[in-house]
Amino acid sequence: MDVKLKTCFIAVDDHDKALAFYRDVLGLEVRNDVSFEGMRWVTVGSPLQPDVEIVLEPPGANPDASPADRQAMAELLAKGMLRGVIFSTADCDALYARVQESGADVIQEPMDQPWGVRDCAFRDPAGNLLRFMEQPQV
């Protein structure tokens, strides 16, 4: 079976702040920026993974979501309760220094984990948890 990840979604409440973080701090490239019916979707991705995209979307962007569902999603986002993404990096400490310098909310400084990776964690401007993992050198 040939199955690969193509696209994942991260809810954001302010696309300009999200772009400043994902593009300017993390170095992801903007691949698409679409507005439709009062909503905006911005697609970003790593230049190292041209076939994988992250869509920054409004909370509750599903067209079938009720107003109550949209409100609940916005409230969960504001609390930092929505799931984020785990990124890999060749140098966790250098990435940590760059992201910390940007003023991002630090959740965990770089540390060696018992399962063999070195990682750190931040919240993006919308409150999503993002982890950055470095595989051990073999």
Automatic annotation (TrEMBL):
Which InterPro entries does the record match to this protein? Answer: Glyas_Bleomycin-R_OHBP_Dase, Glyas_Fos-R_dOase_dom, MMCE/EMCE_epimerase, VOC_core
The protein's matches in PROSITE patterns, at most eight in alphabetical order, are given as: VOC
* Pfam hit, one: Glyoxalase
For molecular function, the Gene Ontology terms on record are: lyase activity; metal ion binding; methylmalonyl-CoA epimerase activity
| Gene Ontology BP annotations | L-methylmalonyl-CoA metabolic process
Q: Which residues does the UniProt record annotate as the domain VOC? A: 4-135
Alphabetically sorted, this entry's keywords are: Lyase, Metal-binding
**How is this protein named in the record?**
Lyase
User: What is the protein's species of origin?
Assistant: Streptomyces brasiliensis
